[in-house]
Design brief:
This protein is mainly alpha-helical and about 270 residues long. The chain has twelve helices and two strands.
Length: about 270
């Protein structure tokens, strides 16, 4: 917004009644703050008895930059919402201007001087980036189509297909491009869903394989322990005569075995 720079008396009188005018302090260009250069007087023009002033504070810029940006503002206002080529040029100019302004100034400048929001600005700049190296072909497409192609969510494959067909003289209608983008997004969503399902199936197979492996290991351990028990039993049998073995087999129960172990441990046996 216009700052507190002085203006001729006949203009400055009643400026508080002018919409968009503000006396709020601003952070000015370093050279102005140091007094090395003079702050430019914000320009105004008369329409009947009303005064129309710029709503961006050009006092924050060096005079040369202020003059350049005023010129760009007038130019860009005339290009807004025109042809695709104009919109690409707007985006190209906005990219250049963004690098010249301090952080936060760019948004204020486009909203107050060009009259567009930051999302629209970003769309113009995306269109300009899309047109790099292929400006003539992109300019053949309708603005609505270029906006869709410039969106970050549109896949490069779709962009290349539409541009290639435009280069060969086949300008796809907006509805066809929209359908291509929609189908591509649905295909990718399906692919993601299938990848997740495959991952779940793989995890389930892994869990089943792990369980099977554990069971195999348990069975192998059981077989090993059984073989060891059989070997011990055979060593006991080898110590007795056939009659003694049959006697033990006929009389040895778990209760008898427990009592036998108790007697052995107590030293009675």
């Amino acid at each position: 917004m216009a700052g507190s720079a002085s203006a001729p008396g006949w203009i400055s009188q009643g400026l508080s009644n002018v919409p968009g005018y503000s006396n709020a302090p601003t952070i000015c260009h370093p050279q102005i703050a140091r007094g090395e250069i003079e702050a430019p007087i914000a320009e105004g023009r008369m329409t009947g008895i009303s005064i129309i002033r710029s709503t961006f504070d050009y006092n924050c810029l060096a005079p040369a930059d202020a003059a350049s940006l005023r010129e760009h503002a007038n130019k860009l206002r005339g290009l807004i919402a025109k042809s695709t080529a104009d919109m690409i040029q707007v985006g190209r100019d906005l990219l250049a201007i963004k690098d010249r302004l301090e952080h936060g100034q760019f948004t204020v400048w486009v909203e107050h001087e060009i009259g567009i929001g930051i999302r629209t600005v970003q769309m113009y700049m995306q269109m300009s980036r899309l047109a790099e190296g292929k400006n003539e072909t992109i300019s053949l497409l309708p603005p609505s189509t270029v906006r869709m192609l410039a969106a970050k969510s549109t896949s490069p494959e779709i962009v290349e297909k539409v541009i290639a067909r435009a280069g060969s003289g086949d300008i796809l209608p907006e509805s066809a491009v929209k359908e291509m983008i929609s189908d591509d997004r649905q295909t990718k969503r399906n692919a993601k869903l299938e990848a997740k399902a495959a991952a779940r199936r793989s995890k389930a197979r892994g869990a089943r394989a792990g369980a099977a492996a554990k069971r195999e290991a348990w069975l192998a351990q059981q077989e090993l322990e059984k073989a060891e028990d059989q070997a011990k039993a055979q060593s006991i049998i080898n110590r007795f005569s056939p009659e003694d073995v049959r006697f033990l087999a006929n009389t040895l129960t778990w209760r008898v075995y427990d009592e036998f172990c108790r007697l052995v441990e107590s030293g009675v046996a």
